């Protein structure tokens, strides 16, 4: 049996050590170690270690993070999806459900409610609040997993020199404006799915969401909050109003009562769903462009290809190997090895 001791987090006051056992395939934190061999006491490099799970919408980020947190590394998850930070519309915003979380603590998921003085949760808000959560998680000897598709929030959190007034993802801005100096020691896992396969899955997912209560959830939302032409905070174009599905279905709910026939109502519904699918596809495309920009700028993103697992899950009759087995072999195990190597550095 091989045992490894390493410095996981060190500060001027204390150092925490991590023990890995091949037999148990898990990490355990030692409390109050009395010695650390070859410990460097003075350094300007970041010392807090975090794992960042990135990828386009629908690529399996949440599923992978739960696999890592429940099976390999004692972790807590910090949501970095800017829409999912807001409270409400759990189906429409595709928040991970309580059963799917499998007991893993999630932070900044459905916690924010807009007000007159604070209508938006900004990248600067996320930078500050997520930093506090990271420190708290590490102080409790757990590994922070940053999980979500809002790359602007991820950049705001990680960039050592963050300028709220500068959009480094604006296409006209040069790539060298992207900061390569980070506030943390980061392990980046990029869950990737080839575009045609991902688009097929996203369209299927929209249909499943509509059949799982998204329509009724939005109907109730508009009955309670009204449409977006009001001056009220709850009715302006911020927060949940920006979630894909809300503006598209608002057009339907505005008009359907005036439909003369069931066929006309059905046509309006189909148009709204088609628009949701197209806007979801465009969102994934924009997210992928931002990920490629970060990689081009020098961010060390470790790509994990989930394409075959998605193909098998959508067409099980055409796959000789179950999708769950492909996911395990091609996504979970490679990701576990990446994180393990990172923690043992």
TrEMBL record:
Pfam families: IPPT. Signal peptide: none annotated. InterPro entries: Dimethylallyltransferase (IPR039657), P-loop_NTPase (IPR027417). Keywords: ATP-binding, Cytokinin biosynthesis, Nucleotide-binding, Transferase. SUPFAM superfamilies: P-loop containing nucleoside triphosphate hydrolases. Belongs to the IPP transferase family. This is Adenylate isopentenyltransferase.
